[in-house]
Specification:
The chain has one helix at about 85-90; strands at about 15, 20, 35-40, 45-50, 95, 105-110, 120-125, 130-135. The protein is mostly beta strands. Among the domains are: about 15-50, no CATH class; about 90-135, N-terminal domain of TfIIb. It has a four-stranded antiparallel sheet with strand order 5-6-7-8, with no helix packed on it. It has a two-stranded antiparallel sheet with strand order 1-2. Strands 3-4 form a two-stranded antiparallel ribbon. The longest helix is centred in the middle third of the chain and has 6 residues, at about 85-90. The chain binds zinc ion (2 copies). Belongs to the archaeal rpoM/eukaryotic RPA12/RPB9/RPC11 RNA polymerase family. It comes from Kockovaella imperatae. DNA-dependent RNA polymerase catalyzes the transcription of DNA into RNA using the four ribonucleoside triphosphates as substrates.
Length: about 140
């Protein structure tokens, strides 16, 4: 029985939370739950698992850098686009006076009659009361 050659008083070298074999410098594995000693993979030295107990345990307080990725509410794009069809049917407005209600602002539409000889007819529609009149040019 060798005497004192393999002293267990020498504790493992500790770097951070890692233990290294004091005999050969090999990084020691973490002890399993049922392990009392960690054998050095290189030289077979047994390091007591208790050496790990006093290790400064790093608490990884993961900073919640991104609490909850704010879902951009840009998905709801306001549809301010003009309705092309409605705009097309929107008649121009003439600053004419409604004969019925006196409202100024009649939408008008110029209609070409059957033959060019008869000229065109302008149809007015009151924006206020809806009264429609037509004027023959
Ligand atoms: Zn070793
Ligand atoms: Zn009117």
């Amino acid at each position: 029985m060798p005497r004192g050659s393999q002293s267990k008083t020498v504790s493992a070298h500790r770097i951070g939370s890692l233990l290294f074999c004091p005999a050969c410098g090999t990084l020691l594995d973490l002890p399993r739950d049922d392990q009392d000693e960690i054998p050095c993979a290189q030289c077979g030295r047994l390091e007591p698992a208790s050496s790990y107990e006093n290790l400064p345990t790093k608490t990884y307080s993961s900073p919640h850098a991104f609490p909850s990725p704010l879902k951009s509410k840009r998905g709801l794009v306001q549809n301010t686009m003009d309705d092309g069809e409605a705009a097309k049917e929107r008649d121009p407005v003439a600053q004419e006076k409604c004969q019925k209600c006196g409202h100024i602002g009649l939408s008008y539409k110029v209609m070409q009659l059957r033959s060019a000889d008869e000229g065109s007819t302008v149809f007015y529609k009151c924006l206020n009361c809806g009264d429609q009149t037509s004027l023959n040019n």
